[in-house]
Amino acid sequence: MGVTGSGKSTLGEALARALRWQFVEGDTLHPTANISKMSAGIPLDDNDRRPFLANVAKALAESRPRGVVVSCSALKRSYRDQIRAGDPDALFVLPLLSHEQLQERLKGRAGHFMPAALLDSQLATLEPPSVDELAIRIPGDEAVDAQVTRTLAIMATHLADGLRV
């Protein structure tokens, strides 16, 4: 989970490889109207996100019990709640970066429909996970391998405590 440029897709792909799970790029789950809106620099509202979040929840539900990693912004708790409708045990991983680090990453990104101009609206929307959510925060500026190692270690701790992730 996270804002544009946070590395959620890169981390998601690497994590899926490490787990030998399927990876689903969340951007492919957006309706065409959402992609057009974002491409035009218009932030999505909750109504726009509803079908997208339903698609994410469906991807999770259809993956049980084998597992899947889905990249998705999941910026608000209410969005994460909608996603958990597909898998109540979904684990959210939030790579954290400063505004400046995110801007720098977005400058170097080409060929993506999400313009850097929407970063501030995403940061304003972001509700970091609460302590009662199954979620972890990791340094987004670590090497991807270190992020994967950290995430897997935390997942192993949760499994040892009897939680399914």
Please explain how this structure is put together.
The chain is mainly alpha-helical and 165 residues long. The chain has helices at residues 8-19, 32-39, 46-63, 77-84, 99-107, 119-125, 144-160; strands at 22-24, 68-70, 92-96, 135-139. The chain is globular and about 45 Å long. It is built from 7 helices and 4 strands. The model has no long low-confidence stretch (mean pLDDT 87). It starts with 7 loop residues before the first helix and ends in a 5-residue tail after the last helix. The chain has one domain (8-160): 3-Layer(aba) Sandwich (Rossmann fold), CATH 3.40.50.300. The strands form 2 sheets. It has a two-stranded parallel sheet. Helices cover 48% and strands 10% of the residues.
